[in-house]
Amino acid sequence: MEKAKISSIQFFLLLFMFELGTAVVVARGIEARKDSWLSILLGLSAGLILFLVYHRLFRYYPSLPLTAYARKIFGTYIGWVVGFMYTILFLYTSARNVREFSEVLITATMPEIPLLVVIVLFVLTICYVLLLGIEVFARTAEILGIFLIFVGIIGNLFVYVTGTVDPNNLKPVLEYGWKPVLETTFSPPLLVIFPFAEAIVFAMLFPYLNRAEVVKKAGLASLIVSGLILSYTAALNIAVLGVSEVERSPFPLLATVGKINFLEFIQRLDALVVITLLITVFFKAGIYLYASVTGMVDLFRLKNHRQMILPAGLILVFLSVGIAEDFAEHSQEGFTIFITYFSAPLLIVLPLVMLMIAFIRHRFTKQRN
Amino acid sequence: MSLIHSQKGNAAHQVFPFLFVSLSLGIGRFLGLKAGKVGILLVYVKALSYKGKAGVKLEMKKVWNKLRKKEKKPIEYTEETESNTNHQKLETNLEENIKNIQETLGYSADIIVRTFKIGSSSGQNAAVIFINGLVDKEHVGNFIIDKVMNDHRELNSSTAGTLFTGMKEQMITVAEVEETQEWNKTIQALVSGKTILLLNGWDQAMICPLKGGATRAISEPSSEQSIRGPQESFIESLHTNVAMVRRRIKSAHLRVESVKIGEITETEVTIMYLKGIANEKILTELKERLQKVKVDELIGSNTIEEWIRDGPRSVWPTIYNTQRPDVVVGELMEGRIAVLVDGTPNTLVLPATFIEFFQSAEDYYMHWSIASFLRMLRLLGISSTLFFPSFYIAFLSFHPDLIPTPLLISLAAQRQEVPFPLFIEVLLLELTFEFLREAGLRMPKQVGQAVSIVGALVLGEAAVSAGIVSSATVIIVAATAIASFTMSNHSMIDAVRILRFVMIILASSLGLYGIGLGLIVLIAHTSSLRSFGVPYLTPFAPLIFTDLKDTLIRVSKPFMSTRPRLIAQKKVSKTGNTDTLGPAPRDRQTQENHSQRDSNEY
To answer: From the candidates B392, B513, B526, B530, which should be mutated to test the interface with A, based on the most A CB atoms within 10 A?
Structure first.
């Protein structure tokens, strides 16, 4: 573990940007059609419960990251394997995020740049900031988080000023009843997982927080704020574009912002979205990479995490290039196989099992004492 | 590594550690190397291939250590200053003392030795020695020579010693006098501009600091102008500068500590701080770093700055400098520490934060609303200096589709004639501008006008009409230049001047993506800096809400009731608060304040 401290504001902003990550650009929960914003809110509520689970585990082992307390819970050998699975999962998810961002960047703004170049530079930037330490990473999040909120407000302002928002697109609410909404949220690909349950990666960062007692408050607040923003964005996309266009578009937010036309001069603010995405994904992939590196350091009992950042970054580069042939395959992979068979057990089932075992263990040790 | 190998129970231990550890030790360290050490690759590969598995780590460590450690030979100084070796104490004989002093200083032409007989009955020989130009001769004549020669009182002159004490106590009317037997101290006093009085038959010297000579008069600051604030700036004389600060803070807590730095120049360096407000930890740190300064000569404050600053490789200035005494006072009141160096009007103030460079002295002499507006204007100015040319390149050469059509048409029409790619064009103009700026600074003032005329004509007219550059590029570069002059602090402008070129290169190779990555790296780098332990980007990162009141906006003075938290340590709150703001309540409430108008009146 690095010797560093993260303040609660920094944690709030890190989690906030992490949640927005790629989720704000892609169409989440569009299977529920007009009510996708509702299903995102439902997903948020389930995500909050899951966060409480992760937080409870952290309270049992306040000084240990996820991979370390997995060994305490399951015993050295099974725990090691569990921790290793998480490490791999984090690295893989990081690669997925990097790939997603690069695809958006290439399609939206600069089609002539090779994918590998984009990815290599992006990962190098992440590695540089992580080499400066998690504290610097968190402080960078503070500056850029505030910048991001500012950009968000400006963007919204322009969308409304342009006058393309038509709330009637959202009506009628619950056209087909609750069933499709619930199905979207709770059947695979689960809306809970992406992005809310992904907060489990912060289980690797909890020990760095300088005030353990506010973790719960800050985490829940951040999840709620980002969930509301995601839900609002989904609603805004539908209100501006209409359901069918959102369904067809790979990145509906880009299309929404593309509709901005203020005084015939401020138009095509796609760049703004891409910059937003660059910043949020930078933090999302960075946190994943850092969690993965912390996992490796913990599992292989290395002394220094810095020496692992560049090798892990190298793996990240090749992983994100080789993960899929094209973006369609990448999405297909993500929404069908990855979320159902990897994310769901590791992000939902296993933490619940761990919590149960930890609970029982603590009961017994207490009784013995 | 050994730990992992010891756990041979699990199959996973055999395979995966190999993957990760070999990657970490091999590629990681290799990639982590600084450029220029490419040779390590070959040695590394050899080490990996020739040695057995057990020996690999050891061998690699050896290679690593070899490359890391550059053998440093300590520099030996064979010369020694002669004054230190010959004499330890002064002689009793006057002639001999004078001869020794003359010899030590190599019979320098500017040394003045004036021998005379003292006026009292004994008629002993005495001498006054000083350096021409450093001493106020009139004072030497009036307060030493005149008093000693023309005093006919009968002093107790049984021995030379009592005579010497008598002279000091009854004759010499200099405010500050010091006696010494030490040879080195005498010589040091002489060369630093003090006057030495020697008496025949006594082995002590009297040191009278009658410093004089020409110094510049206090004038207006050349760089940090202010309209409503005080109009004086520091000068080259340290004691005047210290006094200028002292005159503004009439407090017993103001501490002035002095050290001599520079093996040969022996320059006086003064630390000023407010006891009880300044952070003790920062003070100790500063003193430790000052002790480590090992230089022969100390000319100007930049030498000190480069020795003691944090992040020596960073372009950002991590120590603030100013020429204004009122700024120094303001900084001292916030708990910062000032370092004044003899011979320069530039004073260092530390610890510095990023936003400090945007706080001009004028901000505190104006209404808070306009001060806040100007401060944001400055921030905008500096960010447009940094990003304007690069955004121009990025949009025009990578994302023309993002430019509104009418604007794009007019830009494209202008560029039709231009033979250069946009990158070259911008770079050319930026360089020309830098030439102009440098030339304008270094030229004699009389030629300056010619430079500006030629520059304006060549750049503004001829280049555009000849079709070598487009007028849009000229506008961009000119706007950038003007925006950069909104800052009053030069070290910040200089940093941005350099970074602007980095951004231009990034933008012309990767467009907006390059700018975005550059921005992230720049912010991360900036937030990794510290100035004497204080994070450089406070109060933004880490966010300190109470300290935000003097950053982007400057709140009204009564509301600034706390000092910056990480900089000042002890007395966080200032005197005064907002409770008593506004007019005091009257006895008969506010009735009296109302106008005495008749209600029937229209």
So the answer is: B513
Asked if residue A84 belongs to a domain, the reply is: yes
Q: Considering the domain boundaries, does residue A245 fall inside one?
A: yes
Chain B positions in Cβ-Cβ contact with residue A136 (cut-off 8 Å):
524, 527-528
What gap in Å lies between CA B49 and CA A88, rounded to an integer? Answer: 29
In a domain, A220, yes or no: yes
CATH number of domain containing A217: 1.20.1740.10
Determine the Cα–Cα distance for residues A263 and A354; give it in Å rounded to an integer: 57
Residue type, A84: F
Which range marks the domain in which residue A293 is found? Answer: 8-361
Cα separation, A243 vs A35, in Å, equals: 10
Between CA B32 and CA A307 the distance in angstroms is 8
pLDDT reading at B161 higher than 70: yes
Tell me which residue of B500, B238, B480 sits closest to B386, measured CA to CA. Answer: B500
Pairing of strands B254-261, B267-274: antiparallel
Interface size, chain A vs chain B, as Cβ–Cβ contacts under 8 Å: 133
**Tens-place pLDDT, residues A237-278:** 989 888 888 888 878 888 888 888 877 777 778 888 888 889
Q: Is the pTM of this model over 0.95?
A: no
**DSSP summary character for residue B122:** T
Burial of A322 (0-12, 13-18, 19+ CB in 10 A): exposed
* B interface test, pick of A109, A120, A289 with most B CB neighbours within 10 Å: A109
pLDDT digits (tens, 9 = 90+) for B462-495: 888 888 888 889 889 889 988 988 888 888 888 9
Domain count, chain A: 1
CA B201 to CA B92: how far, in whole Å? 5
What token pair was written down for B253?
């807590």
User: Residue A367 domain-assigned?
Assistant: no
Which tens digit of pLDDT belongs to each residue from B392-404? 999 998 888 888 8
For residue A291, what are its two tokens? 């969690």
Place of tokens 């520490």: B337
State the DSSP H helix or E strand holding residue B127, giving kind and residue range, or none if neither.
Answer: strand B125-131
pLDDT in tens, B94-138: 888 888 888 888 888 898 898 888 876 667 888 999 998 888 888
d(C-alpha B123, C-alpha B152), whole Å: 10
Chain B neighbors of A17, CB-CB under 8 A: none
- Separation of alpha carbons B560 and B578, rounded Å: 9
B524, B540, B543 ranked by CB distance to A136: nearest: B524
**pLDDT tens digit sequence for B492-506:** 888 999 999 999 999
Q: In B383-494, where do the E strands start and end? A: none
- Phi then psi for residue B309, to 5 deg, are -75, 155
Tell me the longest C-alpha to C-alpha distance in chain B. Answer: 110
Omega of the bond prior to A62 within 30 degrees of 0, cis?
A: no
Taking the CB of residue B179, how many other CB atoms lie within 10 A of it? 13
Q: What value does the mean pLDDT of chain B take?
A: 80
What distance in Å separates the CA atoms of residue A235 and residue B382, rounded to the nearest whole number? 38
Phi, psi (rounded to 5 degrees) for B587: -65, -50
ipTM confidence: 0.92
**Tens-digit pLDDT profile for residues A148-185:** 999 999 888 888 888 788 888 887 877 777 887 887 77
Helices (H), chain A: 8-20, 36-60, 66-74, 76-108, 115-131, 134-162, 178-186, 215-241, 243-248, 252-258, 270-299, 306-322, 327-332, 350-368
pLDDT digits (tens, 9 = 90+) for B292-316: 998 898 888 889 999 999 888 899 9
DSSP structure class, residue B532 = T
